[in-house]
Design goal:
Blueprint lengths: L30 H8 L2 H12 L8 E2 L4 H10 L2 E6 L12 E8 L10 H21 L4 E3 L27 H13 L2 E10 L5 E9 L5 E6 L5 E2 L2 E2 L14 E3 L2 E5 L8 H9 L4 E6 L3 H4 L3 H12 L2 E6 L1 E10 L8 E8 L3 E3 L15 E8 L1 H10 L1 H4 L2 H11 L20
Parallel strand pairs: 2-17, 3-4, 4-5, 11-12, 12-13
Antiparallel strand pairs: 1-2, 3-17, 5-6, 6-7, 8-9, 10-11, 13-16, 14-15
């Protein structure tokens, strides 16, 4: 018999009988699961086609998850889903199959706990999820933005800077062991302390190679200034450009959080040859949720690469109240981080999202040959007018820029 959580309330029926979990959608983990429970199989298949698209002309296949990973998911209560993106068979190239893992999680301890205990609590919490990724054959694993700490950048309190560490610091050393054990590239977004340049702080993604080596880093390009939420209290725009990291499993890039709102940021990673772009984020429902399913998917289409979008989950409450420039009274939490991590492909297909309120691991197997196949199909690189855009941008950044506006000469002419 279906549980109350699996039932949809009939039209006109009261909803308070459904057990509502914090951040769920009418008691369901995600919109996809709500629709699956409320629609007939045939109708749900058609709705999924419209919402998620088709990959190489068909719905995504689910991947069989190994029993050890399933056990870890059940024992540690995290959402675990796995899907496969296909590409057409080619005569001149073999398939280039890569398995990617995305982790979303809430914090482990209250923000009032000692900072060192908070950090160790997250390490302990993520250990079984990382092990599930490793035992599932994940080749590239990405964690969420500032995964080692609460998202304290909304508070503007400098005590949280204690979480900052150099790129070869404690969190990197923690992950290097897993990288070596599972032959896995790991992307670790942290608050970086640049000890060689006056201990300046950066929002940085450290890319750890599958041998445990540090391949390099990328610093967040775009800093949000929304109301009085301004992350430049802690760090400024990055200075690493748009690097693409050539790994054992493909060419990858990291577009950190707010950079997803800037189409030229996505474009630059594509121009540098990225095949997979990871977007580790920390964003709340009222601020951005309607945009979340759109921007990364559009970037995957426009730039002919895969995009892996990760968002943290949960509501983090801080000791001291703060405001967010939205006209509301001061408060002690930034809002609900709605998870919903997912993967988009260059052919416009995408996976269902992870839970909106629970920790999770999303595994996606992809054939990187699909990137070139979509470039050949749509010809976006060949039909783009980069010289025209470069000319406009070159003029736009000049102080004497004049917009190219042709006014109707009769627009302000008075009637006779």
């Amino acid at each position: 018999m279906a549980s109350k959580e699996e039932k949809i309330v009939a039209e006109g029926e009261q909803t308070d009988e459904i057990p509502i979990k914090d951040g769920s959608i009418c008691g369901f983990e995600s919109l996809h699961r709500l629709l699956q429970s409320s629609l007939s199989p045939q109708l749900f298949q058609e709705v999924s086609r419209l919402l998620l698209g088709l990959n190489s002309g068909r719905a995504l296949d689910a991947i069989a998850i190994p029993e050890p990973a399933k056990s870890l998911s059940l024992n540690h209560d995290f959402d675990l889903q796995a899907f496969s993106f296909h590409a057409d068979n080619e005569s001149m190239r073999q398939p280039r199959i890569v398995r990617v893992g995305l982790i979303q999680n809430s914090t482990a301890l209250p923000t009032t706990a000692p900072l060192s205990e908070q950090k160790q609590g997250i390490f302990q919490k993520l250990t079984p999820i990382i092990k599930a990724a490793g035992t599932s054959g994940v080749n590239i694993l990405c964690l969420q933005e500032a995964w080692t700490m609460p998202f304290a950048f909304c508070t503007r309190e400098k005590r949280w800077c204690e979480f900052a560490e150099p790129i070869d610091g404690e969190s990197t050393q923690f992950l290097q062991e897993f990288a070596r054990k599972y032959n896995m590239v790991i992307i670790s977004p942290i608050l970086e302390r640049d000890e060689k340049h006056g201990e300046v702080l950066w929002n940085t993604a450290v890319v750890i190679g599958n041998h445990g080596n540090i391949i390099g880093k990328h610093r967040k390009n775009h800093i949000p200034r929304v109301g009085d939420f301004n992350e430049s209290t802690y760090y400024m725009e990055g200075n690493t450009g748009h690097p693409v990291f050539e790994t054992a499993f493909g060419k990858i890039a990291v577009n950190i959080c707010y950079g997803r709102h800037h189409p030229l940021n996505w474009l630059a990673f594509g121009l540098n040859g990225a095949e997979i772009v990871f977007n580790p984020s920390a964003t709340v429902g009222e601020l951005s949720e309607p945009m979340w399913p759109i921007e990364a998917r559009n970037a995957a289409i426009a730039n002919s690469y895969f995009v892996c979008s990760i968002n943290r989950v949960g509501t983090e409450t801080f000791p001291n109240p703060f405001t967010s420039g939205d006209g509301k009274p001061q408060h002690t939490d930034f809002g609900h981080f709605y998870g919903s991590s997912y993967v988009s492909a260059p052919d416009s297909s995408c996976t269902p999202s992870l839970s909106r309120h629970n920790d999770g691991l999303l595994i996606s197997e992809m054939d990187l040959n699909l990137c070139r196949q979509l470039k050949d199909k749509w010809g976006f690189r060949m039909t783009a007018r980069y010289e025209m855009y470069a000319d406009l941008l070159g003029r736009y950044v000049r102080p004497d820029f004049e917009p190219q506006v042709l006014a109707d000469p009769l627009l302000h002419k008075k009637s006779l």
